[in-house]
Write a structure and sequence with these properties.
mainly beta; 45-stranded antiparallel β-sheet; single chain
């Protein structure tokens, strides 16, 4: 059976039995491309009659996703296999490529809770192509499917256990989250279940009030600064927003609830216009300058005309909507060519220079050739991370990652290495250059940078207000630069180490300084 698609391609659906109660349904579509390549994508769904707690039934036992695409005359095959348990939930996932190396393969196993909650994953294990366990994440739940405890074990270079714990209130709403460093964030709610308060690990509180309809009515930040919102009683659209200094922005809508005007605190108005398809066709700023937009029959933006009449165009392929060219206001054209998998394989600049990209079997950029013929070659590890780059002069850069996927070492072609170290919250805590000089970073419980210490033990420290804005910087000699902010969060003064102060003044919407 062939099913027509809106873009003109054809999708073929096939169903057939395979004995022993097993049935297979596959969906196949052949795709064309402006790049001259071909791609065949197949999804195969296998079903089987199995005995379950509810009796014999027809359940999905596996799914196979296959991509066969042609690029530069070579056919590449990638495949993902998913195997389901008897309750119909994914049990195994295996990804591999016929053109890839064994290191490209990845295998994921999942365990589930009892059949009552069989969609809840209790453990997920990741193995490499040789079957070695490289990561394990375990999950524990409270009654009602609420995730309580998440613990990750990474087993490559160094064993690590990172635990995130969650607690819930008696209504099943998230009450707290504790990260791997033991830092806890707390949450409170109103009777309708809206989150009204967030308290960070340092005790700073953000409070939110709501209307009976559940819209935000008032926001109070940790400094006590209040932002107010008001709504139309019928359409429930936002009508006014008033900041902590009393400056109000107003919004107006048409009868289709489209925003047509935005007026700032000084009465300056920005206007918006739409076509019958609800697409934005014009924006007029408070000075009367208008930017216009044009669209094709598929709803794609094909042109932008600025207030001076300068036109920028975008051209698209008929099938997938891929952009094939951009034309700037002077008529210069940049064009794009794609392969059968929809990937950019060539970019041609207005002077005719072409940058070409070749991909490996898993769709990663493997070779890039610039308009002068200079080549850059890239290779990746099993997780798809770039591990080696070689430029046209044969200079090679190597990258290494820790078991959590963080970049830890970069080694240049001369063997000089730069390394990075992270804490359990994923924050950079040390950076060492090829000479062995190390810069250290420390943070507070909210993740804000508190100090940097260089290789000579010279330290620069930082201070913040409750809203997280930096209020002071103390250099290694003890000289302090301070900053002040208004309740709207705008910088109003800076005082340097010599005591000289620069003040900034604002009107309701704009800035001027002295």
């Amino acid at each position: 059976m062939h099913l027509p698609r809106p873009d003109g391609d054809t999708q073929e659906s096939q169903a057939r039995s395979r004995g022993r109660g097993l049935a297979m349904l596959s969906l196949v579509n052949a795709l064309g491309s402006s790049g001259g390549g071909e791609m065949c994508h197949e999804q195969v769904f296998n079903y089987e009659a199995v005995a379950t707690a509810n009796g014999s039934t027809r359940v999905q036992v596996s799914t196979v996703f296959q991509d066969l695409h042609q690029g530069d005359g070579t056919y590449l095959h990638t495949q993902t296999n998913v195997v389901f348990n008897q309750d119909g939930h994914p049990r195994y996932l295996d990804e591999y490529s016929e053109q890839g190396t064994p290191e490209d393969d990845r295998f994921i196993e999942r365990d589930y809770a009892d059949p009552t909650f069989s969609d809840l994953v209790t453990e997920q294990r990741t193995r490499d192509a040789n079957g070695h366990l490289v990561a394990r994440i375990t999950y524990r739940y409270l009654p009602g499917t609420r995730l309580q405890h998440e613990e990750g074990h990474w087993l490559l270079e160094e064993p690590r256990v990172l635990t995130t714990t969650r607690t819930y209130n008696d209504r099943g709403l998230l009450a707290s989250t504790t990260n791997p460093l033991g830092q806890t964030t707390w949450y409170d709610y109103d009777t309708a279940g809206h989150r009204t308060q967030i308290t960070d690990p340092l005790g700073h509180t953000t409070h939110t009030d709501y209307t009976p309809a559940g819209q935000v009515l008032r926001e109070t930040d940790p400094r006590g600064a209040v932002t107010l919102f008001s709504y139309d009683p019928i359409s429930q659209t936002l009508q006014h927003r008033t900041d902590a200094l009393g400056h109000t922005t107003s919004y107006r809508y048409d009868d289709r609830q489209r925003l047509v005007a935005e007026e700032d605190a000084l009465g300056h108005t920005t206007r918006y216009a739409y076509n019958d398809r609800d697409q934005l066709v014009a924006v007029t700023n408070p000075l009367g300058a208008t930017t216009r937009f044009e669209y094709d029959a598929y709803g794609r933006q094909v042109a932008t005309i600025d207030a001076l009449g300068r036109r920028t165009e975008r051209r698209y392929a008929p099938n997938f909507g891929q952009m094939t060219a951009q034309v700037d206001p002077l008529g210069f054209v940049t064009s794009y060519t794609y392969d059968g998998a929809g990937r950019v394989i060539a970019v041609t600049d207005p002077r005719g220079g072409q940058t070409r990209t070749h991909y490996d079997a898993r769709g990663r950029a493997a070779v890039t050739i610039d308009p002068l013929g200079a080549t850059q070659v890239m290779s990746y590890d099993a997780m798809g991370r770039p591990i080696q780059t070689t430029n046209a002069l044969s200079y090679t850069t190597h990258r290494a990652y820790d078991s959590l996927g963080r970049l830890v070492v970069v080694t240049d072609t001369l063997g000089a290495a730069t390394s990075s170290t992270y804490d359990d919250a994923g924050r950079l805590v040390a950076h060492t250059d090829p000479r062995g000089a190390t810069i250290q970073y420390t943070y507070d419980a909210d993740g804000r940078l508190m100090a940097t210490t260089d290789a000579t033990q010279a330290t620069t420290s930082y201070e913040y207000n409750a809203a997280g804005q930096r209020t002071a910087v103390t250099d290694p000699l003890g000289f302090v630069t301070r900053s002040e902010y208004d309740l709207a969060g705008r910088l109003i003064a800076t005082t340097d180490a010599a005591g000289a102060t620069t003040r900034y003044r604002y009107d309701a919407v704009a800035t001027w300084w002295r």
